[in-house]
Amino acid sequence: MSAPPGLPPPEEVLKRAEEVLKELERGPWPSHVAELRKTRYPLHIYGVGLVARKSPWGPGAVTVKYVNTGVLSRWARDWVPKGGEETHFRVFHTPGKFWKTDFVRQIVKISRELGVGLIELVGQTGAFVLNLTKDKAEEMVDALRSIGTDVGGSGDAIRALNACVGPALCEFALFDTLKWYVEFHKDKRINDAIATPNFPYKFKVKISGCPMDCARANRADLGFIGVWEGAPEVDQELLRRRIEAGEVDPEKLAADCPSGAITWDREKKELKIDGTRCKKSMHCIRTAFPAIKPGKERRVAVVVGGGVKGRFGPKLGWFIGYLKPDEVQKAIDLTFKVIEPWDKEAPPKYRLGDYIMQTGLEGFIQKAGVKLEVMPQLVKMGDDVPYAVLSKEEREVYLNLVKELKGGV
Amino acid sequence: MTADPKAARLQKVFPVDLNKFLPEVILRNYGRWVDRKFHGYGIIEHISETGERVFTVKIAMPPNARLSADTLEQFADIADKLGIGAMRVTMAGNLEILTDSLEKALKIKEEVERMGFPVGGWGPTLWGINSCTAYLTCTTAVVDSPSITKALGDVLKPYFTGEVTLPAKLRVFVSGCPAMCAGGSAMDIVIVGQWGAPPKIREEALSYCLPPKRVLEKVPESQVFIVQVCPTGALALRREGDKVKLVLIPEKCINCARCKENCDAFDYDPENVGVAILVGGKMSNTGRGPRLGRVLVTWLPAIPPRYEEIATVVKRVIDVWREHAQPGERLAEFIDRVGWQRFVEMVGLGKIYSLYQKMPDYVRTYMYFRQRSDAWPRLRDAV
Fold it and tell me: What is the pTM of this model?
């Protein structure tokens, strides 16, 4: 980007940059500027950007041998006084993003010795980010690999996977999200797709243990969300005790159910939940757990095509059917089934969801050859324009309908 | 040919050994948690069927979750001294320190607050503000989300710590450009930087994004990457004699910033730049389920370092919601109940919004061009 019009002379810019930065260190919320000051990050560049109201960074080129994703570098634009550069690695997080302190200290050591002493704890892909100087890039990759993690997940590849904390620290987890997370990483195909960018655009896989969707799977290209079939289980005895203790108000519980599936029988002191109406909002479960628990018939809902940064704007995913909680290998195979037609046919920079919009969900599912439990039969509403170009086959279907309709009145 | 030992790097080392990376108490109680209790805001107790308990203290991080190695080490020291030697990072960019008793949890709270890091979140509070990196490293950001986040955090801190409670959970995402890297638009309040006007093409940098001239002369326009990237056909090749030029048709541009994401030759004027504020999105299936947010304000200037305009609108939305929502009602459900029109008036944006009503729909949507995106280049190629 070129210099913004009316940018003051270099010394004035740097002076104003310092003023803006100082202001950002004030106030009760933790300050990123205060943290950056404790590092070797080139803070003046950030300040100049704020004065210019333009990003001060231009694309740089740092290559690390055989590390094709996860390395990003920037040069300061030519209008930034004193200039400078910035390189960072995207590094894989641990399952559930647990950090034992010995691991933290290893990261801190690497960041101090080979980096600039700056860590972004988590980025939106779910990886964490280490800033470094480019001459230490090769060394840092090896150092990270030696402590059991690695660099990767940028560009048109499978990005760092994300799973919610699941059974490790949550009683609501409906399947073992971290086991799925681990199994996915063990697959050679997943490794290769993370290591080398080869797709039309990025591809994200996210795994959430329950419909509250903490891993934001509904927004991923391929998301897995734990659900159950039918009604939640009610332990009437325990529930009665909790009601008597004043912990749960059954009338309110019934009134607040977004699905309207709950009825409270005052005479019998019994709570009934209609499984056919239950939309899995988790409301009763969260309020009365463990007296009300998710049903035992567990499933993993598969959603495809979500994403933020697509050709046709932000999208939530389409539900395409269920897997069983132990079918992680099927889930991995499914990943490559949905990738295949997209990778082969989609124009550049189409997310999976954009491609699905182009082919239609029905057409996509056929091309991908996906077969799942309870696939929705009807995924498309009627069109809102009364004209269409019909193929010969389509026209024949309607001609057949004509035969059926004859003599109907 | 000897193989380069560095080629081993193509096999990634994934940190997925649960036994190595998960704390022992977590491994012992894996899948055995039965209950949870809240102890004020920002401290949660997980209870296992084995009787073991884990207390977690949620700590707000600086914008974009940027920590210096020194501060992270201090947190590690606290986790060793008062905790069980483990912490957790959340997708919201908060840090959680794990411990085994309420007393220790309260001590952790005291210590980190002394360091200047508020403890809060969970329940009916602000759970955190997500920010993309923007001017800290990004080449395509149009506004600086970390400083917006800082300005908002300063104003919204009482909602995080629970000094002032909210009707339900609240989360704020701040993204520097329409790519929305802070987490998209499916959240309660979303602030997204946008160009405000169609970009200008910097001719001198354009050659990096186009095929070499002799190729460019031969290939059909629809095969040129940067033309393919534009969802509305606003980028086109003009051929005059032996000259080929990339032009931008401003009437077709919807400011989606996809060209900028893929090519450095697009530039904007800071005067046109602003933020859009979206409200009423969510990811969770609670209430009426997940949905994308909707635009409340199309454009507000983003003026560092305090961004008062943005902070005022966000504060006002929260105040309206606090005053009128029923307990447990998230912003999305509250807006559904009172109706969009009523909500817009409550926030005091009726006038602005009536202007927005006059904008023809088609200029603002991706969908209008959906069927045509491929038809346009084909048509032009044919001509």
Answer: 0.92
Instruction: Examine the pLDDT at B379 and tell me if it is beyond 60.
Output: no
The Cα–Cα gap between B272 and B249 comes to 18
Contacts of A347 in chain B (CB under 8 A): 228
In total, how many domains does chain B have? 3
Q: Kindly state the helix (H) or strand (E) to which residue B342 belongs, with its residue range.
A: helix B340-347
DSSP A17-61: HHHHHHHHH-SSS--HHHHHHTS-S-HHHHHHHHHHTS--EEE--
- Distance CA(A195)–CA(A38), nearest Å, equals 33
Task: Give the residue from chain A lying closest to B233, CA to CA.
Answer: A311
Q: Which CATH number is B24's domain given? A: 3.30.70.3340
Q: Is the pLDDT of residue A250 over 70?
A: yes
Residue A322 included in any domain: yes
Structure-block tokens of residue B61: 């991080």
Distance CA B130, CA B64 (A): 7
What are the structure tokens assigned to A220, written together? 């991923």
Per-window interface: B 54-73 vs A, CB < 8 A: 54, 56, 60-73
Neighboring chain B residues of A289 at a CB cutoff of 8 Å:
35
B242 has pLDDT over 80: no
Looking at the structure, do residues A196 and A132 belong to the same domain, yes or no? no
Q: Does A230 touch chain B (CB under 8 A)?
A: no
Give the confidence band of A300 by pLDDT, cuts at 50, 70, 90: very high
- In A198-244 the beta strands, taken as DSSP E runs, fall at 205-208, 222-228, 233-234
Mean pLDDT of A329-355: 95
Q: pLDDT, tens digit, for every residue of A302-318? A: 999 999 988 888 899 99
Interface subset of B 336-355, CB within 8 angstroms of A: none
Report the distance separating Cα A207 and Cα A217, nearest Å.
Answer: 6
- The domain containing residue B250 runs over which residues? 200-267+378-382
What the block records as the tokens of A60 is: 């740089």
> What whole-number distance in Å separates Cα of residue B369 and Cα of residue B376?
9
Boundaries of domain holding A273: 233-293
CA distance B345 to A137: 54
CATH number of domain containing A50: 3.30.70.2500
What residues in B contact A27, CB-CB < 8 Å? Answer: 150-151, 153-154
On whether any CB of chain A is under 8 Å from the CB of B219, the answer is: no
Q: Measured between beta carbons, which residues in chain A are less than 8 angstroms from residue B373?
A: 311
Å between A309 CA and nearest CA of chain B: 5
Q: Are residues A57 and A178 in the same domain?
A: no
Among chain B residues, the shortest Cα distance to A253 is held by: B328
Which residue type is seen at A96?
G
Kindly report, residue by residue over B56-70, the tens digit of the pLDDT: 999 999 999 999 999
What is the pLDDT of chain B when averaged over all its residues?
89
Query: Which residues are CB-neighbours of B123 under 8 A, at least 6 positions away?
Result: B38, B41, B162, B169
Average pLDDT over chain A, rounded to an integer: 93
pLDDT of residue B353: 75
What's the pLDDT at B40? 92
The interface residues of chain A toward chain B in range 360-379, judged by CB-CB distance below 8 A, are none
pLDDT tens-digit map of B287-336: 888 999 988 988 888 999 999 999 999 999 999 999 999 999 999 999 99
Check B130 against A34: CB less than 8 A apart: no
Residue listed under structure tokens 């628990």: A293
